[in-house]
What we know:
The complex is a heterodimer.
Chain A: H1 16-58, E1 63-72, H2 75-78, H3 86-90, H4 94-105, H5 112-119, H6 125-136, E2 144-150, H7 153-159, H8 176-187, E3 191-195, H9 198-201, H10 214-245, H11 250-264, H12 267-281, H13 289-314, H14 317-325, H15 330-359, H16 362-366, H17 387-396, H18 400-431
Antiparallel strand pairs in A: 1-2, 1-3
Chain B: H1 2-28, H2 40-77, H3 86-100, H4 111-149, H5 156-172, H6 174-196, H7 199-204, E1 208-209, E2 224-225, H8 228-259, H9 262-277, H10 280-301, H11 311-336, H12 339-347, H13 352-381, H14 384-389, H15 407-415, H16 424-454
Antiparallel strand pairs in B: 1-2
Helix pairs in contact in B: 1-2, 1-4, 2-4, 2-5, 3-4, 6-16, 8-11, 8-13, 9-11, 10-11, 11-13, 12-13, 13-16, 15-16
Amino acid sequence: MIDMTRPEREPGAISKTVADRLKRRHAAERRFRLYGIGAIAAAMAILLTLFVTIVGSAYTAFVQTHVKLEVFFDPRKIDPEGTNSAEAIRGGDFGGIVKASLRNRFPEATGRRDKRHLYDIVSTGAAFDLRTMVLENPDLIGATRDLWLVAGDDVDMLVKGKMPRDVPETDRRLNDRQIAWVDALSADGDVEMRFNTRFFTAGDSREPELAGILGAAVGSFYTMLVTLVLAFPLGVATAVYLEEFAPKNRWTAVIEININNLAAVPSIVFGLLGLAVFLNVAGLPRSAPVVGGMVLALMTLPTIIIASRAALKAVPPSIREAALGMGASRIQTTFHHVAPLAMPGILSGTIIGMAQALGETAPLLMIGMVAFIVDIPGGPFDAATVLPVQVFLWADSPERAFTERTSAAIVVLLFFLVIMNAGAVLLRKKFERRW
Amino acid sequence: MEISLLTAVVLVLAAVGFLSGRSRALATAAGGARNLRSLPGHYGYYVAVWCGAPALLLILLWSFFQGTIVESLLVAGLPDVQGLSEAELGLLVNDIRNLASGNIVSKEIDPEMRAAADRYGSLRTMAFGALAVLSLALAIGGGALARGRVSPRFAARERVERAVGVFLIVSSTIAIFTTVGIVLSLLFEALRFFNLIPFTDFLFGLEWSPQTALRADQVGSTGAFGAVPLFTGTFLITLIAMAVAAPIGLLSAIYLSEYAPGRFRGAVKPLLEILAGIPTVVYGFFAALTVAPFFRELGEDLGLDVSSESALAAGVVMGVMIIPFVSSLSDDVINAVPQSLRDGAYGLGATRSETIKQIVLPAALPGIVGSIILAVSRAIGETMIVVMAAGLAANLTANPLESVTTVTVQIVTLLVGDQEFDSPKTLAAFALGLVMFCVTLSLNFIALRVVQRYREQYD
């Protein structure tokens, strides 16, 4: 008989070494779990910081400081000949009118330098606004009105509290007198924040207070249009061919490897391709949305192809068999039955690809879409820039006021991206069938 | 713009062709559509394809080659171009083109140039006129011919389906053409560069200063194209990025797949993916505006001298961007490890973390390594963050607090703005692009092989 006795111990108790080890092991377990939570928390914290910084510096760009001045529409300055024609008004000295109003308001500014500083309070864009007003309503000539004029960017920064007042005068963009003038204006209630419509209706400008994103947004629109027109049919056709028709041979294997490789090629290389082929060989115009759209289409193709293939693969073979059994040809089967069922997946993949293309900057720098363009492009062949490139350009500008505009442009860009991605998710959730 | 109008006209013609083909099919079939061999629509498509496809193809090819052909005709007609170098000629042609389209010209306009510009304008008008006439004739002729062939016994469906099949095959080859185009364009320009600068100087040279002198007698730089500082700079920033992305990405993937309850996972995973969806230019702005000053101040407090364009700031922000690449790929791999392995470990009394560290991670290792290699390739090719947050000076240093430059930054600085395609400065960008293309491609290849080769087969 075997002796089954073990060292004396209470039933259910464990030795001290084991208990200690167990404690250590459990502590290690908790530590490990904490690492995981810590990693996620770190990522979330960074994401939050990113959004808070961007939005926090962006929201002030949606309002713009305006200054109220008594403006006398001096006929001698607008229309010295008295012809009252639109042509004469267009050539009128509206800058002089703004300057005269400022001198009226602050007669103590006498020296040349003083006057120049005084004129900095109001933006140069105010003169254009006055011209538009007079062009619309020529009766204004000779009248005197209280008008809200756009303030210069430095005044804007001061009023928004983004320019410190307590630093030495030489370290500020505004000197003490200018600040005193602005304070005098605001003490009279003649400084006001108004919604910055210009930001949404103007093209780029060297003056921050006159710069808007409409030009870039329209450029983005044309670029995306070209990308969509090229990438969607080509991508879907490729996916349909590979998934429904292609024989499994070496040639299709080569195509598949190529597609997967293209998906991993850095985007800037596509820009080099566009520069060498589309601009230098084909002689297409620089800075044009067509070329940008073509480059981005090549870049987006792999995304669309891979998503479309997955969507087509998800359609069960019974659909195809039923259609073929009813006498449909293979093309009819594919285009009448399989493709429509896969369409939600294809479309959401396309939207995600387009969202990527919308946020892409680097390849567009290569093909000259970084030019400074004031006009709003009228078509895909006009020189244009796009939203992310506009962000890049403004981020590079030294003026303080461009920082908040950069953030505001980012907010607009993110807004479009969120809408597109939400659309893709919605499309998939709502219309995709599970078999 | 004129081309788009022409394209629209051809498309309208094709639509008209569709209608006329269908109605003709119906008209020729005595007794209605049932006597037709194909559906009436197929006859319509047949006519539309013959009407539209050749004309559109012609427009496409024409607009691709018109620029070069018109230019060579223009140069051939210029009186005294023999003495000019390639660059001067390019400038002259550019001026003529600008003059013709009413833009600003770099020098004074002499009557000769005015004449050349007029000729350029008339050449362009002529070219467009010829294209318009040819393509419209092609569209109408093709459509009419096809319409003539429509008859009840005509096999329209087979022909249309063959055309569709051809379109599908042609589209699928675009990927190959793109790859070939990338390789050829990079190789071609890079070879021109290596004709000017020896290959070994480029690959092993320690000094990078691409600023070549404008005039021969100018003092200073003659241009040095040693790319080693760029490679080390890229490597340094990638290393910092991976030091951020690999632990955070991997640990969050482990937590999400092994510990997190379903709802937490469902909420956090999309949030992590957002990091990958933010445009890189936004990260660049964030790095330059917030992160770099933060590190700089932190360094000042610690008594360190941190450059305002430090490799650290760019690298950390790039790491944040890459977190989702690591985490979502690792997540997939970890989920693919069969549950039976975990159950076996639990059965032996292992805690969860022991199971993960000793069973799950070793089993998932090839996939994790693959995902990290892919992330490295992504980091090497990333452009905007480093353009906005890293420096331009090519320092050969391993100190993350100093400013370094990367391959992508140099490509952008060399190519943004005006270019002339015979200076080594511009061509160097293509050589750098070629190196980067090769490196990222081989990294992807290695990642794929690692995953395939070392994946253990379960079940």
